[in-house]
Amino acid sequence: MKKIQSSIILCFVTLLTLQTTVNAQYVLTEADQQYTLYNYNKAIDLYQRAYQKKATLHAAERLAACYENQQNYIEAERWFATASAMPNSNPVNTLYYAQALQSNAKYAEAKLQYSKYSAQNKELTEQQKNIWLRSCDSAIHWMKNPTEITINNEKHLNSAQSDWGATKNDNNVVFASDRNIVGKNKQTAHRPFLKFDGAKTPNRNVYGWTGNGYFRQYSQNGSDSVKIVSIKTGTAYHVGPPSFTTDGKTMYFTLTKIPEDAVYEKVKGAKDKVATVNVQIYSSTNGTEWSSPTPFKYNHAKEFSLGDPFVTADGKRLYFSSDMPGGKGGMDLYVCEKIAGGDWGLPVNLKEINTEGNERSPAVDEAGNFYFSSDGSVGMGGLDIYSATIVAGKIGEPKNLGYPTNSPQDDFAFNKITKDAGYLSSNRTGGLGDDDIYSFTLTTPKKISYIDPVLLNKEIRIENIYYDFDKWNIRPDAALELDKLVQILKENPTIWIVLGSHTDSRGDDAYNQRLSQNRANSAVEYIINRGIDKNRITAKGYGETRLLNRCSNGVKCSIAEHQLNRRTEFTIVKQ
């Protein structure tokens, strides 16, 4: 009887386990469909249910991605931490975890995760690694040394949802908002695309990515209430913020329309065919009312996005962002110039400032200074705002505007209305909703400095210094790099540095500690012999205590892997 009872119980447990697995898989499939359609609100609920039934890496990764896309960085950090620690996790989860930590201003922890990912990814360039680490160090420095600028949340303009892209037209402040839907859902308001279910048109009231309404233009005149801008756009979906010509009679903005010839394709995870609908640029003129929008000459709604239009005061240049083919990264910045007949010339890629990341929200002030946002350069996290001068049509070297113009989250749509005041948008901590509109007022400019010599007058890249096995003499390749540092120290007499030397794991631990100190001393001596005050340099030997990869004691590694750990790294500790 006990055997029979045991068999019945075993059978019941097996069936229950099987049923749970099947149910979890069904919920996961439904979640994947919503994820594919960018319906992140629905996907989050389904992935959480699936994870509760069965804790899978896939569900954890997707939850993290959903929260990251909705800019809920606290939850994104939690789920990327979970995913990166699970068995068979892809190393890229470590990178995403680092980025989430950075967005939450946890810079020291972010550096550890960036270093961990760098050791996991052998194809990663030293340049990219340096950008990540310098970003964390620079953010800490900027927050300790804020610039002379006053930032205020424009509470009379903002809502519990997303409000961004403020500009002026006469006495009206005009911006974009998705405020009409009750509820507060973290989201990405300035994404360049939508994806819809081909079986039916999208919900005309709710945007699945965020759970909020679609974007519309709003305006406020003085102390009047915020009102929707009356314009016959011909779309029930997104309408972006405008950029006006000087006379206020023409505006450029973005629309999201479903083309009549939209191509619907089968996408894995979706029950029905879907079509990707890209944001495009339109213009409208104002007589007695705003005219029906005219599409920009270079729109290709089925192929790529065009967004963030900005027309210069003279109306001769139109800057915008796009992911069109031939770019350098995700979203690149382009400019078109007016040609004979009033038409727009071909788009020109702004190669001087575009990166492998995303560049957004271009703008030019009355003095000819160029502003934009990027997540591909040294910054505090997410999109940071940068400035550059324009001389003879050429854009100079971009400079990060520092803190508090920038924050660990997304900062964009920087727009000077007067010489020293204007608006910017940000989803920084402490806002009323998702993206908020902030006003800024500049006071006495303050020099922005990086915790890296890259912005100290010249672009000088400092590489790590490597040594031969069991040696501490300065190799010719190392001498070249040390000479660069000598030049920086001569040109910037207030800089103090620490040279930290590291060994690989081969040999006795105590011996390696002495060897690393000898190597650090050797590098310092080289620099002092070239005329640098010894009080400005400190030598520090770390031995094998800070390995960059898996090659610890007893682990079999290649010569190249051991070589990576034999290095001297420079840290600027005072400027």
Describe what this molecule looks like in 3D.
- This protein is of the alpha+beta class and 575 residues long.
- The chain has three domains: 20-124, Serine Threonine Protein Phosphatase 5, Tetratricopeptide repeat, CATH 1.25.40; 171-379, no CATH class; 453-574, 60s Ribosomal Protein L30, Chain: A (2-Layer Sandwich), CATH 3.30.1330.60.
- It has ten helices and 27 strands.
- The strands form seven sheets. Strands 16, 17, 18, 19 and 20 form a five-stranded antiparallel β-sheet that branches. A four-stranded antiparallel β-sheet has the order 1-23-22-21, with no helix packed on it.
- Helix 2 (40-53) packs antiparallel against helix 3 (57-69) and helix 3 (57-69) runs antiparallel to helix 4 (73-85).
- The radius of gyration is 27 Å and the shape is globular.
- Mean pLDDT is 83; it is low at 1-20, 181-206 and 445-462.
Provide a brief overview of the structure.
The protein has 575 residues and is α+β, with helices and mostly antiparallel strands. It is built from 10 helices and 27 strands. The chain has helices at 2-36, 40-53, 57-69, 73-85, 92-103, 107-120, 126-144, 476-491, 509-528, 559-565; strands spanning 149-153, 163-169, 172-177, 193-197, 216-221, 227-228, 243-244, 250-255, 274-278, 280-285, 294-295, 306-311, 317-322, 332-337, 348-349, 359-364, 369-374, 384-391, 394-395, 399-400, 411-416, 421-426, 436-442, 465-466, 496-502, 537-543, 567-574.
